[in-house]
């Protein structure tokens, strides 16, 4: 039962253009959302996050938008650079069913390729 | 400087053998996690520990075991009962149970021959 979904496994964008990565979730109790970036054979690194009480958070070239009514968030990268080529994971914070402890639930990832 | 280390980076094991993956952090974080990554499946939670001497099963705990005897260390044992152990294993930590962000180690690629 995948509570966080990234329906696009891959995305290709020209350098300098906007990259838009999408994420959908099913649990309305999620209260915090994060984006991680991952290079091959490395651990994910934190990129940007947003609280459920906000609808937008910006950090340099990266902006995350949250639409709670649609249970949808997106990551915008402007302008896209070749170094942005990586797998991007969306994650949501919620309570783990068996213990009630807060944990992160991850999407399946989207591979972004920025073409020079 | 602070961070999470996992060793080894690559590990090969014969079928039927147990193997232990190391995870150490010097961030003074209370909570630690083990995830498994398979192609097209994202990160799936194996075990987590909110505090020393306590740990809980995640979504795919069968065939794995952990211990948390020290705050800094959270080793994962892949037992012979794990049916499909070949995968990329990631360890993470966070300040505490209420913290939003988890910090990840570089990962261990386990291949069963």
Can you give me a brief rundown of this structure?
Chain A is mainly β. Chain A has no helices and eleven strands.
Your description of this structure?
The complex is a heterodimer of chains A (116) and B (113). Chain A is an all-beta fold and 116 residues long. Chain A has no helices and eleven strands. Chain A has strands at residues 4-5, 10-14, 19-25, 32-38, 45-51, 56-59, 62-67, 72-77, 86-95, 102-106, 110-115. In chain A, strands 2, 4, 5, 9, 10 and 11 form a six-stranded mixed β-sheet that branches. A five-stranded antiparallel β-sheet of chain A has the order 1-3-8-7-6, with no helix packed on it. Chain B has 113 residues and is mainly beta. Chain B is built from no helices and eleven strands. Chain B has strands at 4-7, 10-13, 19-25, 31-38, 42-51, 54-57, 64-66, 76-78, 87-94, 103-104, 108-112. In chain B, the strands form two sheets. In chain B, strands 2, 4, 5, 6, 9, 10 and 11 form a seven-stranded mixed β-sheet that branches. In chain B, strands 1-3-8-7 form a four-stranded antiparallel β-sheet, with no helix packed on it. Chain B starts with a strand and ends with a strand. The chains are: A mainly beta (116), B mainly beta (113).
- Biggest interface between protein chains, with counts per chain? A-B, 25 and 30 residues
Shape of chain A: globular
Helix content of chain B: under 10%
Distance between the termini of chain A: 38 Å
Gap from first CA to last CA of chain B: 36 Å
Average pLDDT taken over every residue of chain B: 91
Give the topology:
The complex is a heterodimer of chains A (116) and B (113).
Chain A: E1 4-5, E2 10-14, E3 19-25, E4 32-38, E5 45-51, E6 56-59, E7 62-67, E8 72-77, E9 86-95, E10 102-106, E11 110-115
Parallel strand pairs in A: 2-11
Antiparallel strand pairs in A: 1-3, 3-8, 4-5, 4-9, 6-7, 7-8, 9-10, 9-11
Chain B: E1 4-7, E2 10-13, E3 19-25, E4 31-38, E5 42-51, E6 54-57, E7 64-66, E8 76-78, E9 87-94, E10 103-104, E11 108-112
Parallel strand pairs in B: 2-11
Antiparallel strand pairs in B: 1-3, 3-8, 4-5, 4-9, 5-6, 7-8, 9-10, 9-11
